[in-house]
Amino acid sequence: MPRRNRHRRDSPRFAASTGWARAESGDDGDWLVRTVPGAQATKVYRCPGCDHEIQPGVPHLVAWPADDTGSVADRRHWHRACWQARLHRRPTRRR
To answer: Where along the chain is composition biased (Basic residues) (predicted)?
Structure first.
């Protein structure tokens, strides 16, 4: 019998392909975070952490406040490194 390749439930790829979000807490509040694989990234977004564009095909993540009732307007697309470093950066000046 051939072996089946199964995704682990805690792997980011499994979570992103099913649309699930994980909860994260930090000094800046509680967030829901979903990983977006490069194959599903089809639009250009601007990362609020570094203010650079996230091009189509680039893996990244989407975060929104956990207390939000699902408003699309509050979702932000981040580079993974920018999201992880957000608590250690000084505020950036917007263009």
So the answer is: 1-10
Question: How far is Cα 64 from Cα 75, in angstroms, rounded to an integer?
Answer: 5
Spell out the residues 6+ positions from residue 51 whose beta carbon is closer than 8 angstroms to its own.
92, 94, 95
Question: Which residue intervals of 1-95 are DSSP H helices?
Answer: 12-18, 80-85
Q: Residues 66, 69, 73, 77: is their CA dihedral positive or negative?
A: positive
How far apart CA 92 and CA 7 sit, in angstroms, is 38
Return contacts of 6-11, CB within 8 angstroms, 24+ apart. Answer: none
Each residue's pLDDT tens digit, 3-44: 665 544 444 433 433 358 899 998 889 999 999 999 999 999
Structure tokens, 68: 């939000």
Q: Quick one: how far is CA 44 from the chain centroid?
A: 14
